[in-house]
Amino acid sequence: MSNHVETTRAQVLTEARKWLETPYQHQASLCQVGCDCLGLVRGVWRSIYGSEPFKVPAYNVHWAETGEDETLLLAAKEYLMVLPLAEAMPGDVLLFRFSSHHVAKHCAILSAPQRIIHAYSGHCVSETSLTPWWQRRIAAAFQFSK
């Protein structure tokens, strides 16, 4: 494993932890002001790489329940490096499906073997356990890589 990858994972965790306690705000991406799960990942990206690779279009709260397009999964595949789930390490991004018949719609940053940092409605950015409930819903794993 290259030093660049390890440095990036460490940078991801350092930056993600700066976002802890940021209030949940749909479509936002400002540390300690407001963000949603995607906003957290976008903010970490900006901290590491600078500007975002594209402007995220507006999306409603129920965007994933209204279609079959794997928008989040396809974007992650475009801008992050796909990893086998067994190889995911702290500092990597996990995507989740809330049920088998829905598209991937939630993302988090793995912070320890059984912990994630994420933002979700009604809560601030938090570091929580990667419980069996969450584990069963993992759709894919990615590594920040340019």
Task: Compile the SSE list and pairings.
Elements: H1 3-18, E1 29-30, E2 34-35, H2 37-49, H3 71-79, E3 81-83, E4 93-96, E5 106-112, E6 115-118, E7 126-129, H4 132-135, E8 138-143
Antiparallel strand pairs: 1-2, 3-8, 4-5, 4-8, 5-6, 6-7
Helix pairs in contact: 1-2
Description:
- The protein contains four helices and eight strands; from the N terminus they run αββααβββββαβ.
- It is an alpha+beta fold and 146 residues long.
- The protein has a single domain, classed as endopeptidase fold (from Nostoc punctiforme), CATH 3.90.1720.
- The strands form two sheets. A six-stranded antiparallel beta sheet has the order 3-8-4-5-6-7. The protein has a two-stranded antiparallel ribbon with strand order 1-2.
- α1 crosses α2 (37-49).
- It is globular.
- The model has no long low-confidence stretch (mean pLDDT 91).
